[in-house]
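**Paired protein data**
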Amino acid sequence: MKGFFIFSTNEEEKAMSTQPSQEIDQLLPKNYDPKAAESKWYPYWIQNEFFKAERDPKKQPFTIVIPPPNVTGKLHLGHALDTTLQDIITRTKRMQGYSTLFLPGMDHAGIATQARVEATLREEGISRYDLGREQFLEKVWEWKHVYAGHIREQWEKVGLALDYSRERFTMDEGFSRAVREVFVRLYEKGLIYRANRIINWDPAARTALSDIEVIYKEVKGAMHHMRYPLSDGSGFIEVATTRPETMLGDTAVAVHPEDERYKHLVGKTVILPIVGREIPIVADDYVDPEFGSGAVKITPAHDPNDFELGLRHQLPQIVVMDETGKMNELAGIYQGMDRFACRKQIIKDLTEQGVMFKVEEHIHQVGHSERSDAVVEPYLSTQWFVKMQPLADESLANAASEESVKFVPERFKNNYLRWIENIRDWCISRQLWWGHRIPAWYCSDCGETIVSREDVSECPSCHSHKLEQDNDVLDTWFSSGLWPFATLGWPEETEDLKYFYPTNVLVTGYDIIFFWVARMIFNGLEFTGQNPFEHVLIHGIIRDSEGRKMSKSLGNGVDPMDVIEKYGADALRFTLATGNSPGNDQRFYWEKVESNRNFANKIWNASRFALMNLAGFRYEDIDLSGELSTPDKWILSRLQATIADVTRLSDSFEFGEVGRILYNFIWDDLCDWYIEMAKLPLYGTDEAAKKTTQSVLVTVLDQTLRLLHPFMPFMTEEIWQALPHEGKSITVAAWPTVKEEWIFADAEAEMNLLVEVIRNVRNIRAEVNVPMSKKIELLIKPSDALSFERLSRSEEYITRFCNPERLLISMELSTPDKAMSAVMTGAELYLPLAGLIDLEQELARLEKELATLNNEVERIEKKLNNAGFMAKAPEKVVAEEKAKMADYMEKRDKVIARLAELKGA
């Protein structure tokens, strides 16, 4: 129970205050205003360059590079969580004496940004083709500058300690040079090649996609069974497909070589319905004789497995669609039709011809574009690829070594390894205009392909000037995979690269381990010979209060700027950072943010109380050499335990636990116990005791604010500046360290006994409805001499907080006949009933309450035993009734126990 001790009124405290209220209000206003603090301190931090990283050979570097947000719009709660965790780590390490770099930057996000800009242009009735490449890119750069400004404003609102002097963009000049260098090196090593292969094609965005940019969704489709007639007229062979429109590109039918049903047909041909083309029947081990009819149609240009089979059998590759998903000229009478409209028409035509004889419902996984949500089309196209196996082998070897990247939680390393072990070549070319253009030129005269770090104007083979650069750009992840070292100046051997690389921690969500984390690791190993970071801290996603993923379609998204507007950045940061353990999803509750805003208010009010009693007290006046009271020793000792726990848990990224420990220490130990007990010497006449208490109070507040600062930077700075302090800002103040001389085990034991006495007295008062203002008789029987000494020394505090008319502490105490009692470690205590309550009146009240509870229990029991109700009532209603039942029964048990105690007294 919190806040139970405050007996004095505000007026009484003002009267006892040693500092005029006007002066206190100037230092700390009555109410904490997050907006005022946020608008004041962030510019102060930036102007004083507290966040600017310095290469100091005397300090150990600590580096975090921000996962670059896409310049596509506003940041969401996931970004706020991600960056808040990074900021907490960075601020902590700076205070611990590291030379910290929190490097900001943004990603050009090729396909996503181009799609947004194209959508904007469409509203004006313009397409990118109307503008042409150069003009379109000018529009995208305009977009980038606007939204980069928005993102920086949001970073500022969240309070990120970023070194803006080192901000990077994945398409700035230096970064572009790094991208070209990587492309050329891989090409020269034989790891980048160009080939005509089946790739994932997004017909909406008109670009290739990598495998991990395809999201598979369960879709209700159909399996269409068809009979392809043998060309010799001797019968037919049955095939089935979920995509009948692709039959127009069939170039064979395949069977298993050991399938006795078809051995005699291998080498013969069938007539492809509608098209009339003669295609062969081939034998291949790829075919599963147990699936369907054991015969499959082969479409090398529209299926990855068929493509590989087609290469083995030297089959033609017939592309029957264009890049928009419409049927092309090779589709004959279906030319110009959308692929899905064509499907419907072909089903109709084949059914009328008797070729399609059966259609079965079929649930299957269908690939969708992660960006546009269009159904992905397997499509034969000439693209650029990275040969991944050699890079994967290097990553696997490193993962097995002691120098491997440490995943937090460790279970996510298995996800990473599974992907690496089953890696496929990576299609890196994209049919876009926005992005890093592929540094390859083609000679029109001799056909030479030139890959170069610099722009090429002459063919080195034939000296022709008829060169054309490849129109495609690189996959966004190709450039962002270089982020940890390219941001620090690579391929140049910059001083920043030497000092700040490798980085220390990458904070990211589990959803991009394959997209980004894996690629940064193999790029780091390949191009720097080192892992790009020491730790990868994985967090989950933020769901709504019902556990649903936040999305536009559900309308359940929460804008972090709205949260900050309502409750302040500190409340949002504390909520996000302490909402869960690493790797797990968390739910967002507005109530939690409000609760953490109240926590901030609690700290604010405690600090105002301190200031009310620090008139004329300076930092130089702090003196803990005098006699410390038991509460003084206890709070200093509890502070040391808190420092140790917070430091240890911060190092292991257990921020939820850090938040819990800080919350409990501040609210319970500091505010509810120490500050209330400090009022005795602060309001007393003993000047030495008062000065010691002031010193303890300032010290504990200062150290506590430092521990809390990484979570709540704005409020802690505001309070710290108002307290007696040394230094320009809490953000560059030293991190608290454990002082062995301030660990007082005996004082903790003594205080724990005192606290237990006070709590038990309060609980008994509450049980019998006796207010704290009413005097009572309190008898305490210590169990041993040590407990007697401790309780005797605490008599002043027991009197203050238990409000007894008579207090007796004695080991010879006889147990009273009629009393409320409590047994605790080290003592028994009794509150005689005489004068405490009217026994008969209390018994009557409890009997009446018991009767009411019995009626409620009986009523709900009947309802839950009613078969009709249980059969018809919704699950939620039944659950609510059961919860009521449990609550009533718990209350009834307590009343019965209290009656038994009073009757036996």
Remarks:
- Residues 402 and 534 are 11 Å apart (CA to CA).
- Confidence is low (pLDDT under 50) at residues 1-17.
